[in-house]
Structure formats: structure tokens, C-alpha cells
């Protein structure tokens, strides 16, 4: 991990972040999106993030290569949910299992700890033991499961929800 940088995403990262996400759209049940996105189709999604506040997008980069991203978004649009953010992380497949995800997600959580964030919640499509282990290592606790919450690749998938105290 020499030369690894964990930083706020910039506009130049848009293509790489979209490509990382599209891998999971096409190849895994870990997102319930079913069609890949063009970088332009993700403009509104990218525009919600800033360097401060509840909505942040951080990347792990080595040189010019973006190896992954973690972000926080609104859980629901209703005002009372404001201090609850939904977090997520995606890495290029060859970057998994090297501690990059833990450092990347840790960077996001440290940034959120300075904001008006009371809890972070993450939905994990199961089975996904590596993601569950990562979340538990970072202080998330199981909060419940939505049985057969989505259908992708002709199969039903359940979502385990994990919650982390931020304040």
C-alpha cells in the first residue's frame, strides 16, 4: 500500500468511480441496480457530495489509479432522518483483502465523526462474509435483515442492515 492516498473525490475520479460501481452492477448481487451507468448518468449522484457535511465521497488512490471509494448519503429524504447516513464501499476486485477497504472506510467514518451525524447505516446483500467482517471491525452492529428484499440474476437476495453509533 505504498503511495496509497485516501482523499475526497474530485471530478476527475468520476469515470473510475463509475467503472468500479458498474463492475458490481454487472457481476454481483451487492447492489440492486441492474443496468450499468455512464459517467454522465451519475452526474446528479456525484453532485450531492462535498468536502464537508453528511454527504461525502472519499477514494483510495495509488498514483492515477482509483482503487475504491466509500461514501455517505441520506438514508431517507424525511428531515428527521437527517443525522442518519447510509454508507457504502466498493473496491476494484484486485484491491480486496489488503486492508485498503478498512483504511478507506475508516477515513470516511473519521470525517463523518466531525459532522452532525448521529448514526451510520449500511445495507449488505447476503451472503457476504467479507463485508460483514469489515463493518463489524469498524464498529457496526447487526440491526436486522430484510428477507428476500430484492431480485437480481433471477434470484431473491436478502439485505442485512448494520448500524454504527457516531455520536
Describe the structure.
The protein is of the alpha+beta class and 167 residues long. 25% of the residues lie in helices and 36% in strands. It has helices spanning 14-27, 43-47, 100-112, 129-137; strands at residues 4-8, 57-62, 65-74, 84-91, 119-126, 141-152, 155-165. The chain has a seven-stranded mixed sheet with strand order 1-2-3-4-5-7-6, sandwiched between helices. Helix 3 (100-112) links the parallel strand 4 and strand 5 (119-126). The radius of gyration is 15 Å and the shape is globular.
Brief account:
The chain is α+β, with helices and mostly antiparallel strands. The protein is built from four helices and seven strands.
SSE layout:
Layout (H helix, E strand, L loop, with lengths): L3 E5 L5 H14 L15 H5 L9 E6 L2 E10 L9 E8 L8 H13 L6 E8 L2 H9 L3 E12 L2 E11 L2
Parallel strand pairs: 4-5
Antiparallel strand pairs: 1-2, 2-3, 3-4, 5-7, 6-7
Give the helix/strand class: alpha+beta
Helix content: 10-25%
For the largest beta-sheet, the strand count, sense and barrel status come to:
7 strands, mixed
Number of strands: 7
Cross-sheet strand order for the largest sheet:
1-2-3-4-5-7-6
* Ends apart, CA distance between termini: 31 Å
Radius of gyration: 15 Å
Q: DSSP helix count?
A: 4
Indicate the proportion of strand residues: 35-45%
Shape by Cα distribution = globular
H/E order of the elements? EHHEEEHEHEE
* Residue runs with pLDDT of under 50 for 5 or more positions: none
Q: Which whole number gives the mean pLDDT?
A: 96
Amino acid at each position: 500500500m505504498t503511495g496509497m492516498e485516501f482523499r475526497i473525490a474530485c471530478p476527475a475520479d468520476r469515470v473510475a468511480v463509475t467503472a468500479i460501481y458498474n463492475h458490481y452492477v454487472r457481476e454481483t448481487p451487492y447492489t440492486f441496480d441492474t443496468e450499468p451507468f455512464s459517467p454522465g448518468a451519475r452526474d446528479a449522484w456525484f453532485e450531492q457530495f462535498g468536502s464537508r457535511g453528511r454527504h461525502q465521497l472519499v477514494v483510495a488512490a495509488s498514483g492515477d489509479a482509483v482503487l475504491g471509494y466509500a461514501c455517505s448519503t441520506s438514508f431517507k429524504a424525511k428531515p428527521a432522518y437527517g443525522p442518519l447516513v447510509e454508507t457504502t464501499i466498493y473496491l476494484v476486485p484486485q484491491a480486496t483483502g489488503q486492508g485498503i477497504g478498512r483504511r478507506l472506510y475508516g477515513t470516511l467514518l473519521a470525517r463523518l465523526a466531525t459532522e452532525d451525524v448521529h448514526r451510520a447505516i449500511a445495507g449488505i446483500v447476503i451472503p457476504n462474509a467479507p463485508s460483514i467482517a469489515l463493518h463489524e471491525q469498524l464498529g457496526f452492529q447487526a440491526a436486522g435483515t430484510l428477507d428476500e428484499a430484492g431480485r437480481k440474476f433471477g434470484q431473491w437476495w436478502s439485505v442485512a442492515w448494520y448500524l454504527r453509533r457516531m455520536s
